[in-house]
Amino acid sequence: MIKPGDIQRYMQMRNQYKGQLIIHPIMTGGIVPEEVQKRILEEGWTKVGYALCYDCIEGRSGLITKPPVKEFLQNIAEFFGGDIAEHTFGCRVAQFAVMKAISDYVENERPKDYAKVVVTDPLCHYSTGIAAEMTGFRMTEPPYSGYPEYKVEAKGFAERIEEIRRETGKLPGLIVVTHVEPYYGNMNPVEEVGEIAKEYDIPYMVNAAYTAGVMPINMKDFQADFLTVSAHKSMASLGPLGFLVTTYEWAKKLFKKSVILPEWSGRAFGKKIPNIFGCSVGGISLISAMYSFPYVIERVKKWDEELKKVRWFIEEMEKLDDLMMIGERPHRHHLTHFETPLFWEISKNHKRRGFFLAEEMIKRNIVGLHKGLSKHVKLSVYGLGWNEVRKVRDAFYEIAEKYVKKFNLEYRVSSPLAETPTSEGEEATS
Amino acid sequence: MIKPGDIQRYMQMRNQYKGQLIIHPIMTGGIVPEEVQKRILEEGWTKVGYALCYDCIEGRSGLITKPPVKEFLQNIAEFFGGDIAEHTFGCRVAQFAVMKAISDYVENERPKDYAKVVVTDPLCHYSTGIAAEMTGFRMTEPPYSGYPEYKVEAKGFAERIEEIRRETGKLPGLIVVTHVEPYYGNMNPVEEVGEIAKEYDIPYMVNAAYTAGVMPINMKDFQADFLTVSAHKSMASLGPLGFLVTTYEWAKKLFKKSVILPEWSGRAFGKKIPNIFGCSVGGISLISAMYSFPYVIERVKKWDEELKKVRWFIEEMEKLDDLMMIGERPHRHHLTHFETPLFWEISKNHKRRGFFLAEEMIKRNIVGLHKGLSKHVKLSVYGLGWNEVRKVRDAFYEIAEKYVKKFNLEYRVSSPLAETPTSEGEEATS
Q1: pLDDT the model gives residue B417
Q2: CA atoms B189, B191, B197, B203: torsion sign
Q3: Are strands A204-207 and A171-178 parallel, antiparallel or unpaired?
Q4: Distance from B414 to chain A by nearest Cα, in Å?
Q5: Residue B8: its pLDDT value, please?
Q6: Which of residues B267 and A412 earns the better pLDDT score?
Q7: A122-169 per-position pLDDT tens digit
Q8: What is the mean pLDDT of residues B168-175?
Q9: How far, in Å, CA of A286 to CA of A183, rounded?
Q10: Nearest to B239 among A140, A283, A297 (CB)
Q11: Smallest Cα distance from B156 to chain A, Å
Q12: Chain B residue closest to A123 (CA)?
């Protein structure tokens, strides 16, 4: 029985973290600019899920010209150095579409040349694994270097390719590299792997979920056949929404139109693209991405400034006793992963255990640490103003100081001395 | 080159139809109540695509308890008479998930008993065909009765099953019936087909995209194994969002957790459900569905009142010379399809050709007719107040009258006489 209390609860549902500073690494690149949120409200785009579909003539949202979705997708392709783009129900569906297309290609067109194996980087997002599982790929990886950098080298891909060739007599059907991976924020050697893919003639996908929309990306530099993008992760957009960008050559296979023919009616669905579920998003998430696009075009030009903040923040955090960033140095992405033995020690004494850290941050109006974790933390200061970056640093220091004193722990916490660079101005850029 | 003019255009994008009365048959069941839109704004849910993910502990949005997503999905299952529900990137992804699960079942567990064939109703939505195509099903259909009712009988399904059995020596792997189909708004014999499915022991899916959330639905009445639902079509929700409801028995296969094991890292993604892409929507569309759920629970109780409006509207429209509803009588759904020779005749004389009709309606602040069509129109008065239903009727009459006079056509258009029932009150219920 659905209880009246449950029903009441849905109506009263609050956004508990409204107004807080967001440092969740999957969120900071997706924060929708105030101006865009305002436009969404003013224009009443929250009224109906099919808000873009009034003037759909051809029966696929990617072909709508009023509003200019079709042109937008052309601009998206261009922005990322590709020829053709379609929008998808998120980056994971873009990855699935690639694997589905390659699966068909390997099985139906090139079964003698390619095995149904995908070589991925060893720290790819889980959605890459899920896409492989859904499409029946075996998944293999080159190694990473291990603690504390976890770097991946391009030559590992060549080794895996050779192994697969020895084992099956065929090449892997697909290589996937996550441009920046979601565990440590390391940038993978996408250009070098692109060289290898070209050399072996293996289709090559770069998953740019964490980078496309925050830093300049040109898939031609990677020699990639496919680029997958997350609008709600890195393009200042609501979700779910992703983009799949490819070349003219691959577009024919990847975005092949429907050919199924039901046996009695003989109806055809010839405008629909099966690999993206026929027709994709036609509402608010796509609208927000379109509004945000001009803003995204501008912000990627300021990536160096963002990296400065990230590196300053890492330096400051590492002044805390025993605290260390895990991942490559110098760091080239806003996703940062720290091991935090100090906070782990506190958690053992704290009645809220590992939850204390995220909760203390929330008390300071900073949200986004994974609840329950204190031994390691992952966060991002992307898009924050210098004053906000300092606020985040100060919060960690305050919490450390408070509990080191309270629990009388053998850690040394000195108050942060470094001021944020003043030449950059104090106002938030987010 | 991305031209500055393009960029400007995105920023200036307007909602051209803001404030208009919506009669688009895929939209009326999805209109988000004013109160819900207001809550979304007040709570700031438009800030980030992962708005529900702050308190995600387990790594799958369906397991989040703050806000109560997990409980919501339990309530959804219950509301539709099922045991287990998951949310999906739209009803099409729910349908795909079912076909993927059945594909695996047929191929891996019961290859001797079932053929990779799906029997669908002959007027199913294209997304059913796309799901079949994506998962490699052959698709066959029983016939419909033809003009003007296009009715489908349950016995046609039994005949197709027998044909497939004769041909392949096996049963079809899946039966799919669209509860109400999207061409004429006919209600299919879901209970009778459920009997047949049970008799033959064939898995059975009912696609309730056009009904679940507008009228009372209990999948047990259909003896369905799977119910697919569209939140943005029929649950007063933003999109993309769907629900997939099933039984305890099938949930094990349908929502099976990931088992892929990447060959170097050995990472496992054990909380993720591959058939729904690991983890589904975590933002605004799910939030809107949760806010709207109490409203949906109440509105399905008033379905009879909605049907009264629909039937009154049909009766009134058919008083226009030569105009006729296509589809079953009495009509049992809000999607109505009319053949409109009068408007077709006008279009031949009008400089805007077939576009004149939708454009004339828009001038009267009524949006949702398919642009360019005048020989047939599809529309829905679901959720409109009686005064609004009358307004829609009057608009058609006015347009007919205006052009019959202007082009001196041989049609008879008398001003509408029937008043809407006054006992029901005049205020909009939408």
Answers
A1: 64
A2: positive
A3: parallel
A4: 30
A5: 82
A6: B267
A7: 999 999 999 999 999 999 999 999 999 999 999 999 999 999 999 999
A8: 98
A9: 28
A10: A283
A11: 11
A12: B265
- At B274, the amino acid letter reads P
CB A223, CB A197: distance < 8 Å: yes
Top residue of A8, A48, A135 to mutate, by most chain B CBs within 10 Å, is A48
Q: Which two tokens stand for residue A384?
A: 């924050």
Nearest chain B residue (CA) to A367:
B54
- Mean pLDDT within B24-41: 98
Q: Are A128 and A99 in contact (CB under 8 A)?
A: no
**Burial (CB count within 10 angstroms: exposed 0-12, middle 13-18, buried 19+), residue B34:** exposed
- Return the structure tokens found at A217: 């990306």
pLDDT at residue B5 in the model: 76
Q: Which two tokens stand for residue A13?
A: 């549902």
Closest CA–CA distance from residue B279 to any residue of chain A (Å): 9
* Interface contact flag, A260 B133, Cβ < 8 Å: yes
Task: Tell me which residue of B319, B318, B337 sits closest to B327, measured CA to CA.
Answer: B337
Structure tokens at A224: 């990639």
User: Can you name the CATH fold of B34-299?
Assistant: Aspartate Aminotransferase; domain 2 (3.40.640)
Query: Counting one residue from A and one from B, how many pairs have CB atoms under 8 Å apart?
Result: 315
Query: Is a pLDDT exceeding 50 seen at residue B425?
Result: no
Q: What mean pLDDT comes out for the span B154-178?
A: 98
In this structure, chain B runs to a length of 430
* pLDDT tens string B204-229: 999 999 999 999 999 999 999 999 99
Chain A residues touching B7 at Cβ < 8 A = 293-294, 297
- Cα–Cα distance, A355 to B26 (Å, whole number): 45
In sequence order, the β-bridge partners of residue A341 are none
* Nearest-Cα residue of chain A relative to residue B9: A68
* Under-70 pLDDT residues of chain A: 1, 416-418, 420-430
The continuous run of DSSP H or E covering B295 comes out as helix B284-299
Inter-chain CB proximity A96 and B49 less than 8 Å: no
Q: B1, B6, B10: which to substitute to probe chain A, counting the most A Cβ within 10 Å?
A: B10
Distance CA A399, CA B359 (A): 62
The rounded distance, in Å, linking the Cα atoms of A181 and A160 is 19
How open is the CA angle B147-B150-B156, to the nearest 5 degrees?
125
Extents of the domains making up chain A: 34-299
Report chain B residues whose CB lies below 8 A from the CB of A138.
263
In angstroms, the separation between the Cα of residue A417 and the nearest Cα of chain B is 31
Please write the tens of the pLDDT for every residue from B274-309. 999 999 999 999 999 999 999 999 999 999 999 999
Q: What is the CA radius of gyration of chain B?
A: 23
Task: For residue A40, give the nearest of B46, B51, B231 by CB distance.
Answer: B46
Residue type, position B10, single letter: Y
- Chain A interface test: which of B37, B48, B233 (most A C-beta within 10 Å): B48
